[in-house]
Design brief:
The protein has 5 helices and 17 strands. It is mostly beta strands. A hairpin with a 6-residue loop joins strand 16 and strand 17. The chain is elongated, with a radius of gyration of 24 Å.
Length: 330
């Protein structure tokens, strides 16, 4: 039976007749409760694959009404991101939101990706835009090649992983088609606009803990404000300026400090101290420095548990400090 109306009244009428209606719009599936979705409503959709990674069984689909996750468990079909497809299957509760289960995907031709609705990161963190094709802006804090391993999957796949921050929130964007020989360090500290399929991060209780973006190509990352050519030529700020109102610290971009090392944990963090105070620099850099060494450090200021810190940092050794910082009397 075809659904005569896309609203709740159409569903109610069909259910009152003892049948489950065929859902022909992604928005109808998203409107189901978890319990209703488990009833396995028949589904027939037509739209575009906004992200397709068959190696990880990751499939996001969008029609004119909404986006939806398509859970492929068997042999994935021969298809590509941007394909116009017909999807048949049944509704399921999903790990976080309703999805299409037991799908059959038929490629109808080529299409273009749908327009991406722009959202602030804070709005995406509500979870309401799960599986939607979105655009979000922010500043890149790190760019590394990582293994794309999802919590409920066993296999991994190399991807370019961007950590992007907006105000005090962050998300990870996975870019799966990229040049593995390119140097992406130049993206760090750039202000970008990224288009991709929004995926929820959730716990075993189906509770949202964050979001991630699934991005097919590097071309879906647009640089809106270029990065400073050499961060080690930025103006050196006193560590006491962190999280104070200054043009540098309120910009969201990384800043530069200098001081003597007072503690070093290679690959994790180091503490440095200047005449105005001290700061913790969080950095994956495994270069070892000694207590008393003078270092030049860059990073993104953020509030810490007890004092501001520099996150996603880097540093270089300048030499041995003229004097070792004196301990503070407590």
């Amino acid at each position: 039976m075809m659904l005569a109306s896309s609203g709740p009244s159409g569903l109610c009428r069909a259910q009152a007749q003892g049948t489950l209606p065929v859902l022909t719009q992604a928005a109808q599936i998203r409107g189901l409760t978890s319990r209703e979705a488990q009833r396995q409503y028949p589904i027939r959709l037509q739209g575009v694959l906004t992200y397709y990674m068959p190696e990880l069984r990751l499939t996001f689909f969008q029609d004119s009404t909404a986006g939806i996750y398509v859970n492929i468990l068997g042999t994935p079909p021969e298809a590509h991101t941007g394909d116009l497809v017909e999807v048949r299957g049944v509704s399921g509760a999903g790990f976080f939101a309703p999805e299409v289960e037991h799908p059959e995907i038929r490629v109808l031709g080529k299409s273009s990706l749908p327009p991406a609705r722009r959202f602030a990161l804070e709005d995406l963190l509500s979870g309401e835009q799960d599986s939607q094709f979105v655009e979000v802006r922010g500043i890149v804090h790190s760019a590394r090649i990582e293994s794309m391993l999802l919590a409920h999957r066993q296999e991994g796949l190399p991807a370019l992983a961007l950590i992007v921050a907006s105000r005090r929130n962050k998300f990870k964007a996975w870019i799966t088609n990229f040049d593995r020989t390119a140097d992406y360090a130049s993206l760090v500290d750039a202000r970008v606009a990224i288009r991709g399929a929004c995926g929820a991060l959730f716990n075993e209780k189906r509770q949202l803990v964050g979001i991630q973006l699934f991005v097919s190509t590097r071309e879906q990352v647009q640089i809106e404000e270029a990065v400073h050519a050499d961060p080690y030529t930025l103006r050196v700020l006193p560590t006491s300026n962190l999280m104070q109102f200054t043009p540098e610290t309120i910009s969201g971009h990384r800043i530069r400090v200098q001081g003597a090392v007072t503690l070093d944990k290679p690959g994790r963090f180091l503490y440095i101290q200047d005449a105005s105070g001290g700061v913790r620099v969080v950095s994956p850099q495994d270069e070892s420095v000694r207590i008393g060494d003078s270092v030049d450090a860059i990073g993104f200021p953020a509030p810490g548990q007890y004092a501001p810190v520099l996150e996603d940092g880097a540093f270089r050794r300048l030499g041995t400090a003229a004097t070792t910082p004196a301990p503070v009397d407590l």
